[in-house]
């Protein structure tokens, strides 16, 4: 559904890609879009990714996504997210929202004044909640460890990782990789953040463009999607690509191009599932220990995807899609899935 709220200036789209496994769950992105069409196209792709991600992570959720067009000039942020909350409320629980690029815990607190179908709210007590990004980073590390063992026969302490984008997830990922002993090369347009990473983690700083052809073992895209296109795939010198960004492949055939260059691509919708697992835990009332158990299991799932890919001579991306679609297909029509 599209929405335009004159008073607050909130304008965007909510996409419910699938509700077979449960309510369509996926974050809300606030971003610059040239027009309604480009916002819708982005939301459609992101919602499909969420359907695959939620299925593969064994969550009782379908896939959805909301995109709000960033208003030009000054705007009342609280009013904008309250207006969005009213749209979510209208869907009566068929869509559950949370943070994504451009939105924060404070924004979700505004949404929560209008609907209860929202997560990523301020943490209360020992329960899951808050910014999902550290959980996303933890899941990426699990997937990366398995991918590095499989492709390079090495541990994270032996490798150099190029992290593109030091936002909520990318910076947290650097912290975890630094703890594991990995060497880091980073690219981030906010120079003060890049400088902090250089200082704290001994990271080398490069431009984003240079990082894509840098001599790294692993490339971790953690900025926006579409980074792996024909040009960048041809330039890569990494043996593994494993990061948090959604929709890293500019088109699906890039998975084959990566495989043809013997580059192991960890499907993004598997590697970055940690955040939605935390969101699910908050919404469904799990304990933090359960969220942690499930996020750590991203590594095991990555192993299963790589085994299926090898068995069938297909790419990890195809194997992960097949596993996700098989889970969705197993649910008899109209039957709810237990958490
Ligand atoms: P964020 O907005 O906090 O961070 C993005 C960072 O990328 C910013 O620091 C920005 O300055 C930087 N950036 C922008 N263009 C760049 C470029 N060309 N080169 C290098 N850096 C660039 O977003 P985030 O929450 O960290 O999410 C990052 C990615 O991971 C997004 O694609 C998001 O959809 C995906 N993701 C995030 C979560 C989560 O829990 N936050 C979960 C799943 C997927």
Order of helices and strands: EEEEHEHEHHEHEHEHEHEHEHHHHH
**Would you tell me the overall average pLDDT?**
94
Q: How many distinct helices?
A: 14
Helix content: 40-55%
Q: Any idea how many domains?
A: 2
Give the biggest beta sheet: 6 strands, mixed
Q: Outline, from the CA principal axes?
A: globular
Q: Which architecture of the largest domain would the CATH scheme give at its second level? A: 3-Layer(aba) Sandwich
| Spatial extent as radius of gyration | 19 Å
The name of the CATH superfamily of the largest domain reads: NAD(P)-binding Rossmann-like Domain
Q: Enumerate the distinct ligands.
A: nicotinamide-adenine-dinucleotide
What is the first-to-last residue Cα distance?
Answer: 27 Å
CATH fold annotation of the largest domain: Rossmann fold
Secondary structure tally: strands: 12
**CATH class assignment of the largest domain:** Alpha Beta
Low-confidence stretches: none
Active site: 65
Pfam families: ELFV_dehydrog (PF00208), ELFV_dehydrog_N (PF02812)
Protein name: Leucine dehydrogenase
Keywords: NAD, Nucleotide-binding, Oxidoreductase
